[in-house]
Amino acid sequence: MTALLPRRGLAQILALIVILAVDRAVSPQFFDLRLQDGRLFGSLIDVLNRGTPVALLSLGMVLVIATRGIDLSVGAVMAISGAIAASLADSHGLPIVLAAALGAGLLCGLWNGFLVSVLGMQPIVATLILMVAGRGIAQLITEGRIVTFSSPDLVWLGNGAVLGVPVPVAIALGMLILTGAVVRGSALGLLIEATGGNARASELAGVGTRAMIMAVYVWCSICAALAGVIAAADIMGADANNAGLWLELDAILAVVIGGTSLFGGRFSLVLAVLGALIIQTMNTGILLSGYPPEFNLLVKAVVVLAVLLLQSPKLSGFGSIVARLRRTKA
Amino acid sequence: MRGLPPVLITAIVLVAGFALCAVQFPNIASTRVVGNLLTDNAFLGIVAIGMTFVIISGGIDLSVGSVIGFTTVFVALAIERWGVPPLVAFVAVLALSAAFGAAMGAVIHVFDLPPFIVTLAGMFLARGASFLLSTESVPITAPIYSTVSDFALRLPGGGRLTAIAIIMLVIVLGGALLLHLTRFGANVYALGGSRSTASLMGVAVGKMTVKIYMLSSLLAGIAGIVFSFYTSAGYSLSAVGVELDTIAAVVIGGTLLTGGQGSVIGTFLGVLIQGLIQTYINFDGTLSSWWTKIATGVLLFAFIALQQGLVALARRPVARSAGAAS
């Protein structure tokens, strides 16, 4: 249970290596990297770059799921923040654009958090409201059009590079380190896990469960807003209908692949991000191998089922055998 | 407030909404518009009935939209490409969807997994399978399709009650009888109230779970066939996001998302409210379609908040502080 590289991440790392090997087999130049105009290019960088939105979403989602919650609204929040960023980009500076987009994310998070922690709604229901209405709000902002922009600052956020690394990847890495430092550098992570393990017992033990729940939904929406800005910057426009569509499902999938239990009580940030990368590596591999992208959904379905069966309480006997084997090997 | 059942509130909202619309646009209050309302929302109504059973039993089914998409593609390909007689194709696709639902129910029960995530996998699976069959829209030209589309009962005032609207009404009626009058229906409520209590009372929880998800997928299959009648085509991207509309309709209809309470009639009214919002926006002409989503979201919030209030009132004497036990 150490902060950054728990031992239980072995299965995920092995899975990533296997998928990378398969990708290498279908596309021999998969690991090629080259530096051009001060930015790295190559399939690997592409995986990281395209995986960024889901990785960011999974950073917030993993904390929500750790409290036994779920946030279905992240895709809609992405659409809202992307719409705001795109509408303001050509008339305002980058700091104002970012502040407005992330501020909208903060409001969405407060709304979700209010419904779950103060009104005591089931998380899946509470966030369903914003999931349905959010896309409508995003379309209200863009007035139903696809808003494009040319502000070089915002474009840089999606397509620029820092020390050769694409900016989105750098941002995701920064957010991972920031989130990790905050929740694992303090007792916060433990308190979140306690809330998910047994909210009532934690409350009686003096944990501010309401504040914890509020905080994770706010953080989740802020991560989603950031992902929305990056997605909009990447395509230099905001499409309220399609921005972040179904990404909430990918984010949940990434968290589940990362071994975080949907029953709450434990989580790993690094493994959730690794889960996002596994999904993206699969997607890229399917594209490179020349199969139609429609196979993505089938592959994802099989992966979800496999991971679920491994997580199933009924099969925990099997899981503990695996854990014992791993321990004797180590 | 306490004596007012949620269904009654839904009915009042529907009548009041309809009256408001009729005041602004007198033409709305015609059998023509009402007939179209029923036709346009026939598939939504059918699939929402199945969802009502699932949600009352304490579960959720996210796969219904994908099952509709799969059904339309399968039916279109079977009739047009493989030369299967339409009725055989219908039976085959309904058997497939029922088996699919039964499999999801079995996985949920046997492995004790959250329905949310199992049906999410089912959603990917069904959508992926329909993509594999065909990514293009396949038009259906079989004669039975034009016969069914042309068939309609004339209503006084020039309205038409189409065949698919009649199918929907029959299923609503059948669903209501099944839920409210049979042992199966009583078991559905028992399961939603408390699984362990239901099990101790002698309900075969496993069998019930399988049957409930089978029913939901079967109705989604029927909705898919109805949808193919409605559009005369099969398309793998049809009915994307319908699961959300369906859940919204069920909740607006007064069914408790935690399970144990709800009614088929309420769901039917919920579907009509969503249809009414859409009709109003069409009549207005200046409002854009995204207002439907916002209005649905607002209604969802209002009804869930109301339920939350009712539940809190009911629990008050027992436990004063429910806390954040969600």
TrEMBL record, chain A:
<feature type="transmembrane region" description="Helical">
    <location>
        <begin position="297"/>
        <end position="323"/>
    </location>
</feature>
<feature type="transmembrane region" description="Helical">
    <location>
        <begin position="245"/>
        <end position="263"/>
    </location>
</feature>
<feature type="transmembrane region" description="Helical">
    <location>
        <begin position="213"/>
        <end position="233"/>
    </location>
</feature>
<dbReference type="InterPro" id="IPR001851">
    <property type="entry name" value="ABC_transp_permease"/>
</dbReference>
<feature type="transmembrane region" description="Helical">
    <location>
        <begin position="48"/>
        <end position="65"/>
    </location>
</feature>
<dbReference type="GO" id="GO:0005886">
    <property type="term" value="C:plasma membrane"/>
</dbReference>
<feature type="transmembrane region" description="Helical">
    <location>
        <begin position="270"/>
        <end position="291"/>
    </location>
</feature>
<keyword id="KW-0812">Transmembrane</keyword>
<feature type="transmembrane region" description="Helical">
    <location>
        <begin position="123"/>
        <end position="141"/>
    </location>
</feature>
<feature type="transmembrane region" description="Helical">
    <location>
        <begin position="72"/>
        <end position="89"/>
    </location>
</feature>
<keyword id="KW-1003">Cell membrane</keyword>
<feature type="transmembrane region" description="Helical">
    <location>
        <begin position="161"/>
        <end position="192"/>
    </location>
</feature>
<keyword id="KW-0472">Membrane</keyword>
<keyword id="KW-1133">Transmembrane helix</keyword>
<dbReference type="GO" id="GO:0022857">
    <property type="term" value="F:transmembrane transporter activity"/>
</dbReference>
<protein>
    <submittedName>
        <fullName>Sugar ABC transporter permease</fullName>
    </submittedName>
</protein>
<feature type="transmembrane region" description="Helical">
    <location>
        <begin position="95"/>
        <end position="116"/>
    </location>
</feature>
<dbReference type="Pfam" id="PF02653">
    <property type="entry name" value="BPD_transp_2"/>
</dbReference>
TrEMBL record, chain B:
<feature type="transmembrane region" description="Helical">
    <location>
        <begin position="37"/>
        <end position="56"/>
    </location>
</feature>
<feature type="transmembrane region" description="Helical">
    <location>
        <begin position="294"/>
        <end position="314"/>
    </location>
</feature>
<dbReference type="InterPro" id="IPR001851">
    <property type="entry name" value="ABC_transp_permease"/>
</dbReference>
<feature type="transmembrane region" description="Helical">
    <location>
        <begin position="6"/>
        <end position="25"/>
    </location>
</feature>
<keyword id="KW-0472">Membrane</keyword>
<keyword id="KW-0812">Transmembrane</keyword>
<dbReference type="GO" id="GO:0005886">
    <property type="term" value="C:plasma membrane"/>
</dbReference>
<keyword id="KW-1003">Cell membrane</keyword>
<feature type="transmembrane region" description="Helical">
    <location>
        <begin position="62"/>
        <end position="80"/>
    </location>
</feature>
<protein>
    <submittedName>
        <fullName>Sugar ABC transporter permease</fullName>
    </submittedName>
</protein>
<feature type="transmembrane region" description="Helical">
    <location>
        <begin position="161"/>
        <end position="182"/>
    </location>
</feature>
<feature type="transmembrane region" description="Helical">
    <location>
        <begin position="87"/>
        <end position="111"/>
    </location>
</feature>
<feature type="transmembrane region" description="Helical">
    <location>
        <begin position="212"/>
        <end position="230"/>
    </location>
</feature>
<dbReference type="Pfam" id="PF02653">
    <property type="entry name" value="BPD_transp_2"/>
</dbReference>
<keyword id="KW-1133">Transmembrane helix</keyword>
<dbReference type="GO" id="GO:0022857">
    <property type="term" value="F:transmembrane transporter activity"/>
</dbReference>
